[in-house]
Design a protein that fits this description.
Chain lengths: 816, 339
């Protein structure tokens, strides 16, 4: 337990740091190949229409144009989840949002390709458009897709863990609140780029900005109907992903096909506008939360209902829908829980996973509601939370297994560092503090396609030169996964992290890892890396032991030396030890792999939510609000994150601060919003502001001081105890801002982003004696199905459902 | 990446040569100074000039002349304006405006002349070609309808220059030079309330310099409303300049507004102050008067009613700063940095 580490836990420059700051990192856009051609996509100018005809002859005749592709060239649908194969690389018959690719031009340069786009003649027949979930519910026809639950409803879920109505009836107080969380996008600084090329044998290689080369490998081979063994996907280092590079994207398939047809490399670099159209970002979610509490603040039961605006395609939406409910239970003790969710299709770019995938929205609602509960019960919000924090090594009502939980420590830390006790409800009017918490997965328990194989594999190469090369399919997206990989291998082998070479994210060279999503990499890749490195260390120890005339167990590895643990005075170098091992065993190498533990839940849907561990965060935000203008300033944020153990505290803090940055953006300004023109004059439904200038996110000048603390309570399921830090710290930021605004000026803004005009509107209501609140006023009638009933563990269940629910038919009014 | 359309490029060394090229090429030619407004617009195909006439090599446009007032060459970069001691000490409003344009990088390129001639802005217009195609374009460029005011025959895009309102409040004039000669116009008269044809400058004229009158007795201030501490164009600019007698009585005052109309303009708020002291009531009264002249439209960032609702408050900030109130904290909250 008290083992000293040489690498783990030491603040270090990350192993890819120098290349990043000196401009040597080769992103996908930097890939230049001889005879390379360039691709541009013609995108639909219509939000919803059937394609009557496409005439490409003028474009084809343009000098410099090598190839024009349309939907006819791509007969097979694709989609990242096996259950939602609803997209075409180029739309053949129907377009569903402005920005959907319709045709592609491959030309000698980008300019020529761009200019030729205008020469493609497409005839559209416009269809009625649907702009939000309420409209989708009220407009079953025309259907955006012919599959789904009914009308324009993509997914419906209903799960009930114990009788929630009974639990609410028993409560001293029942709180019912509506919240709305506007959609927003990932905004990675690197715009997506891809280069495809075929080798002499006709085999395909794709370099791409992707977080998930393995999933792309599978899906691309399927989309092109070629054997996966003839496809190699190389994930270049990403300039940020945040979930926006987790889907197989149209352009990746298009340039691959073009490279195969032309026998020349083909490149595409998306513009910022196009990245907004690809989107796959945060779902706009309307929420209703009903929570019963006793008078001393214990939760008796909770009911969460969500309504998601999915955009035009499925993508990861089926998973997102689950995530708007399943992780509500892992922070506090909630003995009974019910969750209804509905995802609708609309004529907008598809939504999907963004940092926190589906959970920031309900977390916002839950944490703001807790603030209300604390106020009503006259309990300090920090004390209230401390009294209901979930216990370690327990199951939740929905059968998730909580291992370690450092949440109470996080709360205590931010309470102390922010001087909460002297600030909450005590600062002068116009200044306030707000507190909130959050939790997140350390890797989703299940892969996106059903299989029993490992979720991460690591391979080690080591030879007489002393070099150590580690191969893993994990992808460096800026989060520092290469550094984690090098550090873990270095720690086990007792060498310097900078002496480990990482080869990652290349399906032609590296063992499968499912990719950089769901905060899974440190835990899964890390465990696999430990196994691989330990296997190799074992061989080296045996060879060295023989030489040193001792037992392998008595061989120590540290600081590039191998020595007798009982007599460290006469070490040999790591390299000498390898030579001994190579002499004894022949060529050296090892592999390690990891599969997460089996989840206890057995009901249908129990696959979403389980994780080897959960990370926890608490955050206090201070806000200043001007009562005349509603102008909001955040001068300081205190945040504590339960990370288990920080592999590299510098990168870990970077992730926490980056989360605060993103969280404040979502709380205060970011919104992926759309504009409909007057219907009498136009059918247009467009992204309002697809540009980095007008889509507002914080600049460095808007960023407050952040005081970060890491809580280290090593988790036995995690490598050296290390949990995730990439997503969790985002979650409490948004509700903490909302709670701080309330403390400052006494108005509730129950929808994000919290903008000065909303604050001013709420202040005006307050002045008139109305409820000082801005937020959703109603929740539409959603045909949620009869819930699947699963008794919670303490009510005698075995993790299975006790009924087979039937779907509720659509109400007549909804059809009208 | 978005690519520029093809164009010819000329780089004359004197104002006379530049004027000759403009006269010869006609309206197909456009001047380019820093290019920070024009080049992004060209990428979005708002302007597709056949020829660009660069002002970068013309040293005569980069001069600062100190007399009773100050004369600033049009091709001085905004950061050169910000670094100029005379501007900083005597024309605080201009200094504050220039220092808040865009970002430090853009101010290294962007010029004063370019800032004054900046294209008007609208979020139905400042979009790339494909986006505008999806709304079937608009009146300002390639289309028939103004989507902001569908009944309007006129484009209501917003004047978005920061320095113009500051300079108007300071009583500046500009010189326009063409092959036909030169003329000086009060800066306020350079603008027309028309989002398309927003300048009274003729296509063959070069804006060569900006003249500021003597600053004795004047104090000035500029407050900019925008979402963030950098990058963003103003969605409201309030510029005030006030001359007071020793006892604090206002002898002369001008309050100009930016970004709430297709032109920056002088309001009647200043006149209300004359003869009064800058007391809270007088400031509030002037604020209300100025606010009534603001006509923000739904074509920029932030809610339009809210933008209108805060005009008076911003006028108050400017006048209180001129009065000598301690405004630094408010400034940091609004501008996100000290000015
Ligand atoms: C991200 C971004 C943010 C910005 N934010 C702001 C902001 O906050 N506030 C703001 O005011 N501006 C802003 N700008 C616009 C621009 O950077 C500045 O206005 C700058 O001062 C323009 O000067 P320029 O020399 O680059 O102009 P150019 O782009 O070279 O020219 C602009 C226009 O003026 C004409 N022109 C230039 N010089 C002359 C001359 N001497 N005589 C006659 N016509 C001339 C050109 O023909 C062109 O039509 C921003 C721009 C960007 C890209
Ligand atoms: S104000 Fe109207 S005409 Fe002018 S740019 Fe905007 S939409 Fe176009």
């Amino acid at each position: 337990m008290t083992k000293r580490f040489d690498v783990i836990g030491k603040p270090r420059r990350r192993v890819d740091g120098r290349a990043k700051v000196t401009g040597l990192t080769r992103f996908a856009d930097d890939v230049m190949l001889p005879r390379m051609l360039h691709c541009k996509l013609l995108r639909s100018a219509h939000p919803h229409a059937t394609i009557e005809s496409i005439d490409v002859s003028r474009a084809q005749a343009r000098p410099g144009v090598h190839l024009v592709l349309t939907g006819k060239d791509f007969p097979v649908t694709f989609g990242i989840l096996p259950v939602t194969q609803d997209e075409y690389p180029l739309a053949p018959e129907r377009v569903r949002y402005v920005g959907e690719p319709v045709a592609a031009i491959i030309a000698r340069d980008e300019q020529t390709a761009f200019e030729a786009l205008d020469l493609i003649d497409v005839q559209y027949r416009p269809l009625k458009t649907i702009s939000d979930p309420k409209e989708a519910l009220a407009t079953p026809e025309p259907r955006i897709h012919s599959y789904g639950e009914q009308g324009n409803i993509h997914r419906l879920q209903a799960l009930e863990f114990g009788d929630v109505n009974e639990a609410l009836a028993r409560a001293d107080h029942v709180f019912e609140d509506l919240f709305f969380y506007e959609g927003n996008t990932h905004l990675p600084i690197e715009q997506h780029a891809s280069v495809a090329a075929v080798d002499g044998e006709g085999k395909l290689t794709l370099w791409s900005s992707t977080q998930v080369p393995h999933y792309i490998h599978r899906a691309l081979a399927n989309a092109l109907q070629i054997p996966p063994a003839h496809v190699r996907v190389i994930a270049c280092p990403n300039g940020g992903g945040f979930g926006g590079k987790c889907d197989l994207h149209n352009h990746e398939i298009v340039v691959s096909k073009a490279a195969i047809l032309l026998g020349r490399p083909v490149k595409i670099c998306l513009t910022r506008e196009e990245v907004f159209y690809m989107h796959r970002g945060r779902h706009p979610v309307l929420m209703r939360m009903r929570t019963g509490v006793t008078k001393d603040g214990k939760i008796t039961g909770m009911h969460t209902q969500t309504l998601l605006d999915g955009g035009a395609y499925g993508g990861y939406g089926a998973a997102s829908t689950f995530y708007t409910g399943v992780l509500q239970t892992v922070t506090y003790e909630i003995p009974r829980y019910k969750f209804d969710a509905c995802r609708t299709f609309t004529n907008k770019p598809p939504c999907g996973p963004k940092r926190g995938h589906g959970t920031p929205q309900p977390r916002f609602g839950q944490e703001v509601q807790l603030d209300r509960i604390a106020e009503k019960l006259e309990i300090d919000p920090a004390e209230l939370r401390l009294s209901i924090v979930a216990k370690p090594n327990t199951l939740t009502a929905n059968w998730l297994k909580i291992g370690t939980i450092g949440l109470a420590e996080c709360i205590r830390k931010v309470v102390a560092s922010s001087d909460w006790k002297n600030k909450f409800r005590k600062l002068p009017e116009g200044r306030g503090v707000g507190l909130a918490c959050g939790a997140y997965l350390c890797g989703a328990g299940l892969p996106i396609y059903w299989n029993k194989m490992p979720q991460s594999g690591v391979q080690l190469l080591i030879d007489r030169s002393g070099q150590v090369t580690v191969f893993c399919g994990a992808t460096e997206i800026g989060q520092g996964s290469d550094d984690v990989l090098a550090a873990i291998v270095a720690e086990v082998l007792g060498i310097d992290a900078y002496d480990v070479r990482c080869v990652t994210g290349d399906t032609g060279l590296t063992p499968v890892d499912l990719g950089s999503y769901s905060s899974r990499v440190t835990v899964m890749m890390g465990n696999a890396a430990i196994q691989a490195a330990e296997r190799l260390r074992e061989l080296i120890a045996r060879a060295a032991a023989e030489h040193m005339e001792t037992l392998p167990e008595n061989v120590g590895f540290a600081q590039g030396r191998v020595f007798r643990a009982d007599d460290p005075g006469k070490p040999m170098s790591f390299r000498e030890a390898i030579v001994l091992a190579e002499e004894k065993f022949g060529t050296l190498g090892s592999v390690g792999s990891y599969s997460p533990p089996r989840a206890p839940g057995r009901y249908k849907g129990a696959g979403v939510g389980p994780s080897p561990a959960y990370s926890y965060t608490a955050c206090v935000v201070e806000a200043e609000v001007d009562r005349n203008t509603g102008w909001i300033t955040v001068p300081k944020v205190w945040i504590a994150h339960d990370i288990g153990r920080a592999v590299n505290p510098v990168s870990a803090r970077g992730q926490v601060e980056g989360s605060v940055y993103m969280g404040l953006g979502e709380a205060l300004m970011e919104e992926q919003v759309f504009r409909r023109l007057p219907p009498k004059l136009s059918n247009a439904l467009v992204h309002k502001i697809p540009s980095l200038l007008e889509y507002k996110s914080l600049t460095s000048l808007d960023m407050p001081e952040v005081f970060t603390e890491l809580v280290e309570d090593p988790d036995p399921n995690c490598p050296f105890g290390a949990k995730e830090v990439g997503q969790g710290p985002l979650l409490p930021v948004m509700p903490a801002v909302a709670n701080a605004v309330y403390d400052a000026i006494g108005v509730r803004i129950d929808e994000l982003p919290i903008t000065p005009d909303k604050v001013l509107a709420a202040l005006e209501k307050k002045a008139k004696g109305e409820t000082p609140r801005v937020g959703p006023e109603s929740f539409p009638d959603v045909p949620y199905p009869e819930p699947m009933l699963v008794p919670p563990p303490w009510e005698g269940g075995d993790g299975n459902s006790v009924n087979t629910p039937r779907r509720r038919p659509v109400k007549k009014e909804a059809l009208a | 990446m978005m690519r520029l359309p093809w164009f010819g490029f000329r780089s004359p060394r004197s104002i006379v040569d530049a004027a000759k090229i403009l006269a010869a090429e006609g309206p197909q030619a456009m001047l380019i100074a820093g290019g920070t407004d024009l080049l992004p617009n060209m990428k979005r195909r708002h302007q597709t000039p056949a020829t660009l006439v660069s002002l970068r090599q013309i040293e005569a446009l980069k001069k600062v002349a100190n007399g009773s007032g100050v004369t600033l060459g049009a091709a001085l970069t905004l950061n050169e304006i910000v670094a100029n001691a005379a501007v900083r000490e005597r024309y605080a409003g201009l200094w504050q405006a220039a220092a808040q344009v865009a970002t430090v990088h853009l101010r290294n390129m962007g010029t004063l002349g370019g800032n004054l001639c900046l294209d008007t802005r609208c979020n139905y217009y400042n979009q790339n070609y494909e986006w505008r195609k999806a709304i079937d374009f608009c009146l300002k460029k390639d289309g028939e309808i103004c989507w902001v005011a569908t009944a309007s025959k006129r484009c209501v895009a917003a004047s978005s220059t920061d320095t113009a309102p500051a300079l108007i409040a300071l009583g500046a004039s500009v010189r326009l030079v063409s092959v036909q000669g030169e003329r000086d116009v009060a800066l306020a008269d350079l603008y027309k309330n028309d989002g398309i044809d927003y300048l009274t400058r003729r296509a063959d004229e070069i804006l060569t310099e900006v003249k500021l009158p003597a600053a004795e007795g004047w104090r000035s201030s500029y407050w900019k409303l925008r979402r963030r501490g950098a990058f963003d164009f103003p969605v409201l600019g309030v510029a005030a300049a006030v001359r007071t007698a020793r006892d604090g009585t206002v002898e002369d005052a001008r309050i100009a507004l930016g970004a709430v109309s297709s032109r920056p303009f002088l309001t009647k708020g200043g006149e209300l102050l004359i003869g009064n002291k800058l007391g809270d009531d007088a400031i509030a009264e002037a604020g209300a008067k100025v606010a009534s002249a603001a006509k923000p439209m739904d074509n920029t960032d932030l809610d339009l009613y809210w933008r209108k609702a805060v005009v008076a408050e911003f006028v108050g900030y400017a006048l209180r700063e001129i009065r000598g109130d301690e405004m630094r904290e408010t400034r940091v909250r609004i501008a996100r940095h000290a000015l």
